[in-house]
Amino acid sequence: MEAVHGFNGHSLAVFLHIVLFAYWLGGDVGVYYASRYILRSDLGPEARAVSTRIMHGVDIAPRISLVLFLPSGITLMAVGPLGDEFFVDGWLLVLVWVAGLAWLAVSLIDYRGGDTPLARLSQKADLVVRYGLSAGLVGVAVYTMLATEPFGVDTNPTWLGAKVAAYGLCIFCGVMIRRQLLPFGPAFGRLVTSGSTPEVERAILGSIRRCEPWVYSIWTLVLVAALLGVVKPGSTAF
Fold first, then answer.
1. Rounded Cα distance, 168 and 20, in Å
2. Is residue 237 part of a domain?
């Protein structure tokens, strides 16, 4: 296949994928940096509350990027060699983007928070989607890596299976971060209303520390996915 350069669908898809990668990883690092100030017991509750608001505000970038990474990646497949097989009419790609934007809407409602029926429903729906996608994507990835010609593709897309697995595991790591942060909200609320105590500090510290292995895992997996997407080791497609 002859390479086509210039302003076209493929270049736009690659550009979007790169932008999402940058905002995902960069935003995640910003959230992590803000969390360091929340752990500082020498700062007053007001300063630590500002850090919490910064952390929450910056988190919007990786949250959006993680969701859109899936339809963006499928768009890259559609404009690549696999597109001739699965995306000839374009309707499947449109369906992927509709589903992706619906997930994004649910995720943003959950992000805004609140104790309303819509917010609670969005939180549950977002978790169901994330659990389902993480399991489904890892399953598809394993099949892609083990099958001789997965889905009839004979270009040895093992690298793509590994990239899909990395993305699915990123989603799972994000769910685990949420689980580890469950004690954080009540503990931080007590810090703001009643001041610092050893019990409050232990709860805040423990909650964030338990998140760190999952955060480091996401960073590693995102970098691995980016490397696989650039190198495409073993692929026979040209």
1. 16
2. no
Residue 88, pLDDT > 60, answer: no
Q: Is residue 3 part of a domain?
A: no
Give 119: exposed, middle or buried? Use CB within 10 Å, 0-12, 13-18, 19+. Answer: middle
Written as one letter, the residue type at 109 is: I
Query: Do 38 and 52 contact (CB within 8 A), yes or no?
Result: yes
pLDDT of residue 61: 95
Could you tell me the pTM of the whole model? 0.89
From the list 67, 60, 61, 90, the residue with the least C-alpha distance to 77 is 90
Q: Count structural domains, the chain.
A: 1
Residue 16 lies in a domain: yes
Spatial separation of the C-alpha atoms in residues 31 and 28, rounded to whole Å: 5
Cβ-count burial of 88 within 10 angstroms (0-12 exposed, 13-18 middle, 19+ buried)? exposed
Residues in the chain: 238
Question: What pLDDT is attached to residue 78?
Answer: 81
Give 59's pLDDT tier (boundaries 50, 70, 90). very high
Higher pLDDT, 8 or 160: 160
